[in-house]
Amino acid sequence: MVRTIIGVIILIAIIRLQIFLSKKDNRLLGLIIPIVIFASSLIFAFGFIPTHNKIETTQSVMTETVVSSAYFLPCVELLFIPV
């Protein structure tokens, strides 16, 4: 419960800081927080910074699915309809 309240307070502070920076004469100040958030999302998405989550790898099994050519016949027949 305490962690949730602290998280909400931090979120409100970040939103208020973003609004404050966006209203300044220099509009580029309003891009500071979005750029930091975008950069951190790229860093976490591509795994440049290790997280505390332990990831176990498993061997994946590749299976081949054979699709009958009967499914494609109506599409082929439409190509040869005279106009």
List the helices and strands and how they pair.
Elements: H1 2-22, H2 32-46, H3 73-79
Spatial shape: flat
What percent of residues are in strands? under 5%
Mean pLDDT: 74
SSE ordering: HHH
Could you tell me the radius of gyration in angstroms? Answer: 27 Å
The counted number of beta strands is: 0
Uncertain stretches of 5 or more adjacent residues: 67-80
Written overview of the protein:
This protein is mainly alpha-helical and 83 residues long. 52% of the residues lie in helices and 0% in strands.
Features:
52% helix; mainly alpha; 3 helices; 83 residues
Summary of the model, kept short:
The chain is mainly α.
